[in-house]
Design goal:
The chain is α/β, with parallel strands linked by helices. Helix content is 38%, strand content 15%.
């Protein structure tokens, strides 16, 4: 990853799908000597405790894990009570936690 980040046409931002992948990206970016957020913006999902303590703090989308669990349980109970009931889709909003690893573009 470090070599790819240094190539011409490298990205201006990376978004990791979870905290562990974000941590790996941070390690690779630091190994490549790339400044965050100066040269590359980083963001991810999950609001693990380390994301606030990192320097700079990592911008994340905090997922509503309690709501996800509650909705999943309700849907499971519905399915057990009415197996023929049509499937339904539930969309829950996450919360942006903007920290120092991202920046606005001019």
């Amino acid at each position: 990853m470090a070599g790819w980040l240094r190539e011409a046409g490298a990205p201006e931002a990376l978004i990791a799908s979870n905290g562990l992948l974000l941590l790996g990206a941070v390690k690779a970016v630091r190994a490549a000597g790339i400044a965050v957020p100066g040269e590359l913006a980083l963001a991810g999902f999950d609001n693990d405790s380390w994301t606030e303590l990192a320097d700079p703090g990592m911008t994340v989308i905090e997922q509503p894990v309690d709501e996800i669990g509650r909705a999943a349980m309700e849907m499971l109970l519905e399915r057990l009570q009415q197996p023929e009931r049509p499937l339904r889709k539930v969309v829950l909003a996450g919360r942006l936690v903007a920290r120092g690893s991202s920046r606005t573009r001019n």
